Amino acid sequence: MKFMLNTGRTIWQGEAIEAGKNLELYKNAAAVCYMNAGDMLKLGVRDGDTIEVTSEYGNVVVSVITTKEEAPAGMIFIPMGPWANRIVLPDTESTAMPSYKGPIAVDVEKTDKKVLIMTELMRQSYLE
Q1: Residue 18 and residue 52: Cα distance in Å, rounded?
Q2: Is 92 helix (H, G, I), strand (E, B) or coil?
Q3: What pLDDT score does 60 carry?
Q4: CA 66, CA 84: separation in Å to the nearest integer?
Q5: Among 62, 66, 67, 95, which one has the highest count of C-beta atoms within 10 angstroms of its own C-beta?
Q6: CB of 51 within 8 A of CB of 45?
Q7: Position 100 confidence tier, pLDDT thresholds 50, 70, 90
Q8: Bridge pairing between strands 2-8 and 75-79
Q9: Whole-structure pTM value
Q10: pLDDT tens-digit profile of 76-91?
Q11: What is the set of domains in the chain, with CATH numbers?
């Protein structure tokens, strides 16, 4: 299914960074995709299912969570971090930070693949 991806910081992702990026807490806060309930129904997923998100820049497997606030149909949100880095514009324009802002066209599909912890994700990113 086609979606527009937006990214940004969340309170939970910020809190988890302070605790440690190698912890399960960080994965649970940043390796997630927020989606509205109607889109989840169309995609055939429930909270905690895994999805694969693919953009022109790459792909990543994350867990899906129903948005708590109203979200437009066709829009998904993934917190800033290593998982979002796999699918956003990698050009940093000399800032050392990927381009997170602005919607990015993505394809989303349900998957049985597992969500990688950050160290596994980094190894996969640099060994491909």
Answers
A1: 27
A2: coil
A3: 97
A4: 18
A5: 62
A6: yes
A7: low
A8: parallel
A9: 0.84
A10: 999 988 899 899 887 6
A11: 2-127 (2.40.40.20)
Closest to 13 in 3D by CA, of 1, 34, 27: 27
- Which residue carries 């956003």 as its tokens? 88
The 8-class DSSP code of residue 67 comes to: -
Q: At 24, which helix (H) or strand (E)?
A: helix 24-30
> Does position 103 have pLDDT exceeding 90, yes or no?
no
Taking residues 17-36, what's their average pLDDT?
A: 76
Ramachandran region, residue 47 (left: φ > 0; alpha: ψ -120 to 50; beta: rest): beta
61 token code pair: 């497997």
For residue 99, which amino acid is it? S
Work out the mean pLDDT of the chain and round it to a whole number.
84
> Using alpha carbons only, what angle is made at residue 113 by residues 25 and 64, rounded to the nearest 5 degrees?
55
116, 45 contact by CB (below 8 A): no
Place of tokens 């880095």: 85
State the DSSP string of 20-50.
Answer: -TTSHHHHHHHSEEEE-HHHHHHHT--TT-E
